């Protein structure tokens, strides 16, 4: 499937279309949501992700925000080796540019769950990538996509920049729907009066 087929022309264009490896060559060891939003995300992971088994942290950084009680084998896939090496919850980090190659370097049904935190807005081929995540998940395994109201605007796709926070939920849900093979599509929004909002969309790989 062509990842842009379900969306308007230019939806996945970016202000800065240069190689992402250049942009992420220097580590950015900062969190992109505040402590309350991180705690909310941790509770969401507790409810949805398995605490053991193999998990894929897509577009991984130096923190995965998984609950401390998790004992999963977490594989991170990201663009900065130093950031992933400093992530205490990763068993291993894999350097891979999804915008250059949306194919995931993992076997079919290799993971019991997957997550992508505050990074989905940068994907230029989201439908292909969501399809790949489905491929590497076991049947029934969840994929949790979370985001807030922040981004690097030069790297976010045009569709994201042109829409409001609440509409971003619809966009991510459309990625799931366009890639197909998911069940139990669910969305949630935590929007406190003070502090960072946290939005999440998730679904499970449909049984074969």
Brief synopsis:
The protein is of the alpha/beta class and 208 residues long. Helix content is 25%, strand content 21%.
Characterise this structure.
This protein has helices spanning 20-23, 35-48, 81-85, 126-136, 158-161, 165-179; strands at 54-58, 73-78, 92-95, 113-117, 142-147, 182-190, 198-205. It has one domain (20-205): Rossmann fold. Helix content is 25%, strand content 21%. The protein has a 7-stranded mixed beta sheet, with helices on both faces. Helix 4 packs across helix 6. It is globular. Mean pLDDT is 90; it is low at 1-5. The chain is an alpha/beta fold and 208 residues long. Strand 6 (182-190) and strand 7 form a beta hairpin.
């Amino acid at each position: 499937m062509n990842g842009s087929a379900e969306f308007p022309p230019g939806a996945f264009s970016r202000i800065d279309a240069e190689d992402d490896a250049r942009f992420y060559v220097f580590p950015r060891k900062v969190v992109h949501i505040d402590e309350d939003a991180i705690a909310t995300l941790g509770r969401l992971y507790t409810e949805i992700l398995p605490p053991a088994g193999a998990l894929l942290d897509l577009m991984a950084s130096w923190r995965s925000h998984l609950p401390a009680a998790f004992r999963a084998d977490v594989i991170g896939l990201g663009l900065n080796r130093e950031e992933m090496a400093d992530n205490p919850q990763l068993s291993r980090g894999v350097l891979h540019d999804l915008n250059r190659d949306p194919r995931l370097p993992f076997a079919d049904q290799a993971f019991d769950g997957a997550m992508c935190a505050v990074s989905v807005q940068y994907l230029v081929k989201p439908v292909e990538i969501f399809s790949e995540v489905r491929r590497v998940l076991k049947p029934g395994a969840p994929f949790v996509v979370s985001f807030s109201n922040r981004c690097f605007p030069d790297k976010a796709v045009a569709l994201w920049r042109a829409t409001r926070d609440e509409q971003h939920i619809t966009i991510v849900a459309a990625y799931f729907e366009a890639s197909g093979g998911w069940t139990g599509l669910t969305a949630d929004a935590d929007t406190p009066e003070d502090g960072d909002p946290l939005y999440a969309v998730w679904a499970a790989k449909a049984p074969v």
